[in-house]
Amino acid sequence: MAYWNWDSSLSVGISLIDKQHQRIITYLNELSIAHIDKNSKKVSEVLVELVDYTVTHFSFEEDLMSQAGYPISTAHKQVHESFIGRIKNYQDQHNQGKNITRKLMSELQLWLTNHIKHEDKKYVPYVNKFINKEQSWISQKLKDFFGHDNDNK
Q: Which domains does the chain have, with CATH numbers?
């Protein structure tokens, strides 16, 4: 049974971003399994992957917001940087032998839910307008960040 299931209330309406958010949720579910199995090595591995993927996702999202002319993209980026710092802090605590998994999962779920529903959805009109004008740009960025083309919006 999954720790957290994706639902439509988390959709921003941009398939690529939704898929990236779903992948982050998948990492949280993997973290849950590793925690239940008391597999500290797997927790470490998932934390590394979670941080790496989240940094990549945020970078993609920030570049997209900037290119789309989203007026508060700088503030949004600062929120992302703070979030990454919090995850890395948990990662450091885990590496010191502390059991932070449940607390981290709970905080991430709450933060991501609020962030997606209240912050990410604000940039959607700007990004949709941009995507419609700059389909070639988004395809190139997909290749740059994720190594594949955009199947659909």
A: 14-146 (1.20.120.50)
